[in-house]
Amino acid sequence: MTFQIDALRGKFPALALTDKGRRRIYLDNPAGTQVPQAVADAVSRCLLTTNANLGGFFETTIAAQAVVDEAHQAMADFLGAKSPEEIIIGANMTTLTYHMSRTLGRTMKPGDEIILTRMDHEGNVSPWLQLAEDLGLVVRWLSFDEKTWQVEEATLAGLLSEKTRLVALNYASNLTGSINRVKALTAIARKAGALVYVDAVQFAPHGLVDVQELGCDFLICSAYKFFGPHMGILWGRLDVIDGLKPYKCRCSSNGLPERFELGTPQIELMAGLTAAVDYFADLGAAAGEGGSRRQKIAKAFEVSIAYENPLAQRLIDGLSDISGLTIHGITDRKRLGDRVPTVSFTVEGIVPETIVRQMNAENIFLWSGHNYAWEIVHQLGIPAEHGVVRIGIAHYNTASEIDETLESVHRVIAMLRQQRS
């Protein structure tokens, strides 16, 4: 099937915006994607027609509860969960991880060990580091292989012990783009008796998540990275979360998932969350899938991956032509399936921000810096105050946008080198 990119782009109003007649190229997607009109409409409709708190007996509160229930079911379908009771929705990934880390801390004691990877975003590092400091836990660091750009199973196995209580992994890196073999890593950790907490924030926009297949205990993602509103979603295995006692108000519900969802929920954003999931389902239906919402979502990722990967290779090939430029991540076209289309680079003698400022001035949106991949830049010896140039593709980007971006990168680097000489 041909990927209907023009029809797809028509669903995103932001893609048609201009600034003083100049087009926008959105390649800041690892930090947050644009949203379809349907997501904005769902948020607006909820605020205008179902705006009430939960727990009453009148029409708007009953409708608001339906919005909340629908969002949990939608994310259960999106992640392959057994039940919406396993879906915990909150402010963002970092806040939810801090909350869950403190809850799990109630089950740990001084001397217990946790394993953190040097490949992850700080949102899945700092909460555990600070928990370890509070409780006297031992932190063991899991480095990634700088040849494969992945966490290797043997390296993890060498760190596990009978004292290991938790392994925090990431599915895909927000800097290198590398995808870890989470299922295999999880199996090793679970065999040692450890819980596994997976950060799937960067993977979820680019691949189908199946929590049951992975075998992990927790998995977290962010809706605003997959065309939804600013929210975090945490999946927890039912038999694990049912035995946990979170910090919460004394008189709030002890049911699942309510006991983990503090305060009044972001009901209007939950309406947008369901719309974002349904956007994927609609994409799968347009590709010919007529089954369940989960099956349609799977089809959507099948066709979007087939569209995104050539764009990523086009970008990598174009950047590889520049002398003195280093791509920090997988560049072998045979391993394109081992990465998401997020490409980061540095250029010898040029501070990344100077490149990004010039390209931003041309209305090409991308980022520089460490991007909260704090451990990655330190393992690679990249100055954290400078970081990298990061270009992140979403499935609404086009080949012509990649070509225009590459032309800009070449031109800007040439100009900066000339100014330096």
Secondary-structure topology with pairs:
Blueprint: H1 5-9, E1 18-19, E2 22-23, E3 25-26, H2 37-49, H3 59-79, E4 87-90, H4 93-105, E5 113-117, H5 126-135, E6 138-142, H6 153-159, E7 164-170, H7 182-191, E8 195-199, H8 211-214, E9 218-222, E10 232-236, H9 238-241, H10 267-286, H11 293-320, E11 325-327, E12 342-347, H12 352-361, E13 364-365, E14 367-369, H13 374-380, E15 388-392, H14 399-420
Parallel strand pairs: 3-13, 5-6, 5-7, 7-8, 8-9
Antiparallel strand pairs: 1-2, 4-10, 9-10, 11-12, 12-15, 14-15
Helix pairs in contact: 2-10, 3-10, 4-5, 10-11, 11-14, 12-14
Instruction: Give the low-pLDDT segments.
Output: none
Structural class, from secondary structure content? alpha/beta
Percentage of residues in strands: 5-15%
Helix content: 40-55%
- The number of helical segments is 14
Largest sheet: 7 strands, mixed
Domain Aminotransferase class V: 25-403
InterPro entries: Aminotrans_V_dom, Cys_dSase-rel, PyrdxlP-dep_Trfase, PyrdxlP-dep_Trfase_major, PyrdxlP-dep_Trfase_small
Keywords: Pyridoxal phosphate
Protein name: Cysteine desulfurase-like protein
